[in-house]
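User: Hey, quick favor. My workstation is busy. Could you predict this chain's structure for me?
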Amino acid sequence: MAKPKDDTVKTKKTKKPSRIKQMWQVFQMTRRYDSNITLVLLICFFVPILVSVALILFVPGTIFSAVLWVLAGILLGLLIALIVLGRRAERAAYAQIEGEPGAVGAVIKNGLRRSWRGNEVPVALNPRTKDAVYRVTGKGGVVLIAEGPYNRVQRLLSDEERKIRRSLPTVQVTHLIVGPDEDSVPLWRLARDIRKTKSTLTRQEVVAVSNRLNSLQSTPVGIPKGIDPNKVRAPRPR
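Assistant: No problem, here it is.
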């Protein structure tokens, strides 16, 4: 027997915000942490237009070519403004979680490309101070990222490198420290500094080294209490 339809129950599909609305939300979020973003975006947008107008004035041409120059300036200005907004928004998003336990894990989870293999869960953790060491593997070898003050994380870094050297003595190991010290790596720059490490491994070697290190990690280390890296994502205009 057919079940009668209930007109009172209606399933409403949640509409996704439009791209313009998404960009506006990203801009509003970024403006709260970057007071200069409005001026920067205006400069990025209008400078290419002014350059195109200058070319029209100093380079003879037809009306059609002048219109094309103006359109090109507008499109280029819009493109540059969107790129700058995306980068500033990413920096603002990381500024919200900088200094929190697990912030480095959020960068590893969301900020690295597929050529790098890593986990948002630290491989070493000091339960008392919440200092942690994370590990990623890529063409630049193994990168150990410490989260905490320099004088407290040195021992954790040394212990982890010693474990790696026992089974992989020829693999390059790089140390990066994200913390309150002046010479520490800012959180927003971490992914870029990881990618800048000199390539020493092929793609097949990266997989082999990563699998070898994962097999040595017998006991998983719990993530420090704080932010949830899976819920932190730098918003980008689409």
